[in-house]
Design brief:
The chain folds into two domains: about 140 residues, no CATH class; about 100 residues, Beta-Lactamase (2-Layer Sandwich), CATH 3.30.450.20. It is about 45% helix and about 20% strand. The chain is built from eight helices and twelve strands. Strand 8 and strand 9 form a beta hairpin. The longest helix has about 80 residues. About 5% of the residues have low confidence. It is found in: Cell membrane.
């Protein structure tokens, strides 16, 4: 029996198969190169977009920060101006002859000021205090206020002073006071004149300050107490975030920001990813206004 031998494939078929394999390899390399360069192009485009967004965001943020700096400074200047006007008005009253006349009793001087306060809607009362720190009322009552913070910080009433909100010893209401000295001959202190305001007077001033759609201003004392705020409860309770953070760790970040800006003359800080603050000094208060 004759053995069957498989004939070799035609040369042209072998050549075609070889060309197909080479073509497939070339196609595979080309595809890889296209994918690689395409991926690099996309990555480069994404990187350029990211950088462009970062640059644009930084530019916008710098403009916002500059605006906040200017706004804080302008706000402080406005509040300074308002307080200085009250000081000038009180200086005018303090220069009246009746308050300098030693023949007129403290009770009578208090009565004169009581009548004057009726024409001032923004003033609860005008008060007169003698150099020893005794507050005299129109009905003859007397209160020793020499130990109160406002009297001590105004150096016994010898310098202009606008107080933080505090509780009135007589009524328990939240009040603030503007204080000027009544000076006699040879620059001697004859008494102290005070205008008593509602404790939210500074907050009312701050309410008029608008920053964009959601921004506003608040004022804190050098110890961190809210003395003016849109949230009146914070003022009423004399809220201090620095003290609160000692027991409430959730407020630690806010307290840290407040401490930082209290230490500096000008500062901007992020409280969160969506909030910025800037501050400037109110010279008449020696406190900060924060935007």
């Amino acid at each position: 029996m004759k053995e069957y031998v498989t004939p070799p494939p035609p040369k042209n078929l072998e050549s075609s198969r070889h060309r197909f394999v080479k073509s497939k390899k070339r196609f595979s390399i080309r595809t890889r190169m296209v994918l690689i360069f395409g991926a690099l192009a996309i990555a480069g485009l994404m990187l350029m977009t990211f950088i462009a967004v970062r640059i644009a965001r930084k530019a916008v943020l710098e403009k916002v920060e500059a605006h906040l700096f200017d706004k804080a400074a302008d706000t402080a200047a406005i509040l300074d101006g308002e307080i200085k006007q009250w000081f000038e008005y009180l200086d005018g009253i303090a220069s009246q002859d009746d308050l300098h006349d030693e023949n007129i009793s403290w009770k009578e001087k208090a009565r004169i000021l009581e009548e004057l306060s009726k024409d001032e809607a923004e003033v609860i009362a005008f008060a007169i205090i003698d150099p020893k720190g005794i507050y005299h009322l129109p009905d003859g009552q007397q209160f020793d206020v020499s130990g109160q913070k406002w009297f001590q910080e105004s150096q016994g009433g010898t310098k202009r002073y606008f107080s933080e909100p505090f509780r009135d010893v007589e009524t328990g209401n939240l009040i603030a006071q503007a204080v000027v000295p009544i000076m006699g001959k040879n620059n001697t202190l004859m008494g102290v004149l005070a205008a008593v305001f509602d404790g939210y007077t500074l907050s009312n001033m701050g309410d008029l300050i608008k920053v964009g759609k959601t921004g506003g201003c608040f004022i804190i004392s050098e110890s961190g107490i809210n003395i003016a705020n849109r949230n009146r409860e914070l003022v009423k309770n004399m809220y201090n975030p620095i003290e609160d953070a000692k027991t409430n760790k959730q407020h630690a970040q806010v307290a840290a920001v407040i401490q930082d800006i209290l230490k500096s003359n000008t500062a901007e800080n992020k409280i969160s990813k969506t909030k910025l603050t800037s501050q400037a000094k109110i010279l008449t208060l020696l406190k900060g206004v924060y935007i």
